[in-house]
Write a structure and sequence with these properties.
Layout (H helix, E strand, L loop, with lengths): L7 H16 L4 H20 L10 H13 L4 H20 L26 H8 L7 H16 L3 H5 L6 E2 L4 E5 L5 E5 L2 H19 L20 H14 L8 H14 L4 H8 L15 H11 L4
Antiparallel strand pairs: 1-2, 2-3
Helix pairs in contact: 1-2, 2-4, 6-8, 6-10
Length: 305
């Protein structure tokens, strides 16, 4: 990672830190974000003529905070840059590459973004009904929107699904979440029906001659796997057609699904498990969440059933 080269003493440690993130199962986008943030810190360090990690002080880090504020960056971006530095120095201390951690006293204010919007049940139904299912791509897009809302999976999780991840008979989908953690999520009958129609009527024609080799669930019009970026734009495109105001993304559907389930009486822990959020290790001795429990809760409380 040559853009760290000007901070001679620190470049190896930065590379080691980034490798540790990868080893821990952090996504490539997280690693790239930390990489960019630390490159910014390196450029500040070079301005301050600080060439050794050991010479960084809390005063210098507070100076960095002010320097970032002068760059006219968004509060969320400033938080990301400061958090990256704090994580980096914490790793140096744990790895015994630094005797004293100057960033331990650095407070990183949490940026509270406005909560993204939640669609009403009526808006969700309008959105799901928008794709033209007389067309191959309409069948596919309806199946994608149904899956996003019914399962509350993340954009990347939906894009990475393969044929073997979907079990239509059991009405579940196997999802590879953050940190490489797998979870099984109930799909719901309505979504299963639309996914089945896509698999039977649209996917074979879209995949064409490559059908046997292609394991990806979602296929584009050229017979190639649908990219995460294109999948991410589908809700926005159909929301515009359905005249639903505001930005609508896969995350909007994720948030809407979770909110609607909670409003209909689902247990917060079960919703957290479905979202891939809950750290159930600490709850394991008295909480046993199985896929069957989730399916029962899901069928009772998800309006898209």
């Amino acid at each position: 990672m040559n853009h760290h080269a000007h901070w001679q003493a620190g470049s190896d440690q930065v590379d080691g830190f980034l490798e540790s993130l990868t080893a821990r199962g952090c996504s490539s986008s997280t690693v790239q974000t930390r990489d960019r943030s630390l490159a910014k810190f390196m450029s500040f360090a070079s301005i301050r003529r600080t060439s050794r990690i050991q010479d960084v002080t809390i005063e210098m880090l507070e100076g960095y905070r002010l320097w970032l504020a002068d760059q006219r960056l968004k509060p969320s971006t400033v938080e990301t840059h400061l958090r990256s530095v704090k994580h980096f120095f914490g790793w140096l201390e744990r790895s015994m590459l630094l005797f004293s951690n100057p960033a331990s006293a650095l407070t990183v204010p949490r940026y509270h973004s406005r909560l993204g919007r939640v669609l009403t049940v009526g808006e969700v139904r309008a959105l799901l009904d928008t794709p033209d299912t007389s067309r191959l791509l309409g069948l596919r897009d309806r199946a994608i929107l149904e899956l996003l809302y019914a399962t509350a999976v993340r954009r990347r999780e939906a894009a990475l699904l393969t044929l073997s991840d979907i079990d239509l008979d059991r009405e579940t989908v196997r999802v590879l979440g953050k940190g490489g953690k797998e979870r099984a999520v109930p799909v719901g009958r309505n979504a299963v029906g639309h996914i089945r129609r896509y698999l039977e009527a649209a996917r074979p024609q879209l995949a064409g001659r490559s059908q046997q080799e292609r394991r990806e669930l979602w296929i584009n019009k050229d017979g190639e796997p649908l990219s995460e970026q294109v999948l991410g734009l589908l809700p926005r495109r159909y929301a515009r057609k359905a005249r639903i105001a505001g930005q609508v993304s896969p995350h909007t559907l994720r948030r809407s699904c979770a909110t609607h389930m909670l409003q209909n009486g689902a247990h917060p822990l079960m919703v957290s498990e479905m979202l891939g959020h809950a750290d159930t290790k600490t709850l394991a001795h008295y909480l046993r969440i199985s896929v069957s429990d989730l399916k029962e809760t899901h069928s009772r409380s998800n309006p898209g059933r």
